[in-house]
Amino acid sequence: MDWFELEKEYLIPFYKRQRVVFVRGEGCWLYDENGKKYLDLVAGIACVAIGHSHPHFIKRVEEQLKKLVHVSNLFYTTPQIELAMKLREISGMDKFFFCNSGTEAVECALKISRKVTGRKKFVALKGAFHGRTMGSLSVTWKEKFRKPFEPLIKPVEFVEPNNIHDLEKKVDDETACVILEPIQGEAGVYPLDEGFIKAVFEERDEHHFIVIFDEVQTGFGRTGKWFAKDHYGVKPDVIAMAKAMGSGFPIGGVGVTNEVAKKLEATEHASTFGGNPLACTASLATIEIIEKEKLVENAGKVGSYFRERLSELSEEVRGLGLMIGAKFENAFEIVRRGFDEGLVLNATSEDNLRFVPPLVIGKEEVDYAVEKLGSILRTLT
């Protein structure tokens, strides 16, 4: 069966896909329809934290599937409350709302900032990517994403990352929030400076806006801490989370402080499917595995090793934990040739590769990846 032609016939052409059909996964490895094996260095774009087909994850989700999938948020369900309790423990945030994706989490966070402050202006960073719904798209930097859908939500100001002077010029007493990714993922994996983060919170104390951390890509152990905010020693007013939260199962969430939560009321936001028993169980199972197998620590240790090995091939390697960006010319061609070598890679631009593998990856797989990547580079010279 020609799946490529069927896709053209039946699906809206929103995606530029790689020409491979994956049918199975195990740990850090994927298998295509012909049985070929690939090392997965993308993990569903930083989603599949615990690796593919983890037995405990399957067991927990299967058990919940047999009991209860969905009843809506008109009623109480135990997995939702259990997940909120666990998230308070690992994130340090106080109260939570559940949705289905990262862009929904950002949308909710933006609405919260307007409700809590009574103001309209959003401040985001140049290079930012926060999603593709109308609100999240409004605070996304790249013009090619925004322009076809204008007019978007206004007012929005964009600040140069790590430029404190630019920040001071653009935040004021009309600002509802500053939203930022502690590590800009889609821009190529660029961590923000500690001094800049500190300045954001100092400006918050002066102008009384909301600080939103978009931890959709950086959360749940990806950077070697449970959340990237922990590298900076700060507590945002709001955190948006998703991706690895369910290790591939669709779930997102928003965490807020008690100070923010007390200014919110019933009916001001909602989600039909958000926080349903199956999704929350998938998230609980993910957290259980991350804790039991010490995957936060593994991300820090193996991520450091991965960056060291990549430095043998690239003059510029960035990131924290297992969220890594590296400069490589002809990055899109490297991705294409990666499939021949049994590597699943991701390019964020013509000269940058992003590495966000499952958190279960070990040094042996890293060595395999670097050897294969080196082989690809030799064919390009």
From TrEMBL:
Catalytic activity as recorded in UniProt: N(2)-acetyl-L-ornithine + 2-oxoglutarate = N-acetyl-L-glutamate 5-semialdehyde + L-glutamate
Record-level GO BP terms: L-arginine biosynthetic process
Annotated binding of pyridoxal 5'-phosphate, by residue: G102, T103, F129, D214, E215, V216, Q217, T272
Cofactor: pyridoxal 5'-phosphate
Residues recorded with modification N6-(pyridoxal phosphate)lysine: K243
Enzyme Commission numbers on file: 2.6.1.11
GO cellular component, one term: cytoplasm
Cofactor details (free text): Binds 1 pyridoxal phosphate per subunit.
Keywords: Amino-acid biosynthesis, Aminotransferase, Arginine biosynthesis, Cytoplasm, Pyridoxal phosphate, Transferase
Record keyword Amino-acid biosynthesis present: yes
Matching InterPro entries: AcOrn/SuccOrn_fam (IPR004636), Aminotrans_3 (IPR005814), Aminotrans_3_PPA_site (IPR049704), Class-III_PLP-dep_AT (IPR050103), PyrdxlP-dep_Trfase (IPR015424), PyrdxlP-dep_Trfase_major (IPR015421), PyrdxlP-dep_Trfase_small (IPR015422)
GO molecular function: identical protein binding; N2-acetyl-L-ornithine:2-oxoglutarate 5-aminotransferase activity; pyridoxal phosphate binding
Similarity comment text for this entry: Belongs to the class-III pyridoxal-phosphate-dependent aminotransferase family. ArgD subfamily.
Comment field (misc): May also have succinyldiaminopimelate aminotransferase activity, thus carrying out the corresponding step in lysine biosynthesis.
Name of the protein: Acetylornithine aminotransferase
Species for this entry: Archaeoglobus profundus (strain DSM 5631 / JCM 9629 / NBRC 100127 / Av18)
